[in-house]
């Protein structure tokens, strides 16, 4: 059975991992009438995903992550079968254990995370109006398509171009998940889901493994000279349901680097 699917946000990291048969449009000039007339089975709203830690006010993030997103959902929800919108696992970043989608939000504040909480609360508190809207809460994901300025954009640049980059301390742990796994689960889900590997991964070890595969020593290319100054602090939290493994994360990331280098 053929289905029609649309991605809104054609430059988002996740957009590169959806099937090429899916329609794609920019989030800058969304034609609501076009979406409605096409009668899509699935619409994936991806825009705003890489604005995570921009130094902007609450209003900046609320405008995109709440007002613009909810306006779009309200205009198309009665004309498409299914809508998937993306939030963040950071809504649980104050936990020190495994977390599940049903756990109460508990996080250290940033404007970005706050805007995601507002959006999710508005959807969850009005489920009778949003029965075909599903929220995906992804854990940390990275790829060579990550925009400049982020840690992993520097890491991938050093691997693919052999540039030297200055970074902060990377000896910490996170639940990392590959973008393709998030996309796979987004396509299959019929409920809200929190998508992670289900374990804490040491970032330094992961980076070292990535470089070793390319016969490179990461210490020759990544110089620890920047003080980490992230606007929020995180606990040692991870997904209570594991959708992947470290081996799969590493294998898929290596594949990413190879395909990006030859593209």
Features:
263 residues; 12 strands; Rossmann fold; 7 helices; two-stranded parallel sheet; UDP-galactose 4-epimerase, domain 1; alpha/beta; 15% strand; 2 domains
Helical percent range?
25-40%
* Oligomer classification: single chain
Helix-and-strand structural type: alpha/beta
What is the domain total for the residues? 2
| Count, helices | 7
How do the SSEs run, as a string of H and E?
EEHEHEEHEHEEHEEHEEH
Gist?
The chain is of the alpha/beta class and 263 residues long.
Structure explained in plain terms:
With 263 residues, this protein is α/β, with parallel strands linked by helices. It has 2 domains: 5-141 and 177-195, Rossmann fold (3-Layer(aba) Sandwich), CATH 3.40.50; 151-173 and 200-262, UDP-galactose 4-epimerase, domain 1 (Alpha-Beta Complex). The chain contains 7 helices and 12 strands. It has helices spanning 32-38, 58-76, 111-124, 151-161, 179-188, 203-213, 246-262, and strands at residues 5-8, 23-25, 42-45, 82-86, 98-99, 133-138, 165-167, 173-174, 193-195, 201-202, 222-224, 238-239. The strands form 4 sheets. It has a 6-stranded parallel β-sheet with strand order 2-1-3-4-6-9, covered by helices on one side. Strands 5-12 form a two-stranded parallel ribbon. Helix 2 (58-76) runs parallel beside helix 3 (111-124).
